């Protein structure tokens, strides 16, 4: 069996091909638009798994917000710095980050936990809740599926995937102290040879004030 690639290996190889493949994900843009409508002026936003910086960081900084993005793939960080110079991008594994509690007005994590074991995802939900300011928002997207270490092929790369079905995912965010305020599910086909339709769930959760 082919060894599953790490997230850094996959996304270093994909680079802007990933951005191209997902550029027509209208549900993602709708989730970002709703977030923009809810943010205070000049909000501090943390983007976990920032990728190429587009569309998330680009739309946020265009609206006047202060964006810091992290990604595990050096190539993605390089591309994001070039494409969205008004934001800050750093190389880092989200599991190794440390911030003071109540640092961020909002945190976004679009499909960036699919290669994290479930236990790590649950730990991250608690940490994200702590990092948010009271009233702050988490926008989280993933492929909703009851999978715990399943080997799949993603855009030509062998990966090991971990996720929760939509219901249990909502329960885990609630257990972390967050209130779901928006939920949207969509079926999307990436624009990439051999890519098939994949279900997406977009959840916006608020930390109680």
TrEMBL record:
InterPro entries: Methyltransf_25, SAM-dependent_MTases_sf. GO terms for molecular function: methyltransferase activity. Residues 45-136 form the Methyltransferase domain. Keywords: Methyltransferase, Transferase. The keyword Transmembrane helix does not apply. The keyword Ribonucleoprotein does not apply. One of its GO terms (biological process) is methylation. PANTHER family: TRANS-ACONITATE 2-METHYLTRANSFERASE, TRANS-ACONITATE 2-METHYLTRANSFERASE-RELATED. This is Methyltransferase. It comes from Amycolatopsis rifamycinica. The lineage of its organism: Bacteria, Bacillati, Actinomycetota, Actinomycetes, Pseudonocardiales.
